[in-house]
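Exercise 7. Given the components listed, write out the predicted structure of the assembled complex. Treat all entries as one system.
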Amino acid sequence: GAGVSQSPRYKVAKRGQDVALRCDPISGHVSLFWYQQALGQGPEFLTYFQNEAQLDKSGLPSDRFFAERPEGSVSTLKIQRTQQEDSAVYLCASSLEKLNTEAFFGQGTRLTVV
Amino acid sequence: TQLLEQSPQFLSIQEGENLTVYCNSSSVFSSLQWYRQEPGEGPVLLVTVVTGGEVKKLKRLTFQFGDARKDSSLHITAAQTGDTGLYLCAGARGAQKLVFGQGTRLTINP
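Answer.
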């Protein structure tokens, strides 16, 4: 596709359930980022990949959060044992090279934990 | 802790008026970006400023980076209803991480 694609667009999970969020970056983009955006707030950095290497995971809020990009393309953000405070929009972005080139964002996945 | 503070958080004005949104920090950034986000969509990049004191214009939007690269402003001239949205500033810390402000929700009334 032409842009960053995220799926599902919406996810409702029961507390304690595991979820997996998918990101298809723009083809050929080296860098991939995950952000968490709470209602009424700006996005908060979660993690960064350069190709398949996870170079920065300092923003992951707990060890329940795990991200991977095994072949340097599609990425998955997994949240184990979801809690209500995990409810947010999860945004994926990719850029051609380093961050200071334009980052293209997907539409996000809205996760609601009930 | 918000590294980038945006003000105002909410702004509602009439079509045709001018407005300025501010993005302030005590930290120095290698570059600063402004994004606009519509409901249900991801942020879309408007501009990147890199040099202290830099001014960039995008039609009716004027972006300025502070001399010390700690702050920025977005000025909109003759606002239109299509300018309504969430405006986000984001500072680059090194090459890999964007730090976002909390956003300014702008509403332009007809």
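Discussion: Chain B is about 0% helix and 55% strand. Residues 82 and 108 of chain B are 8 Å apart (CA to CA).
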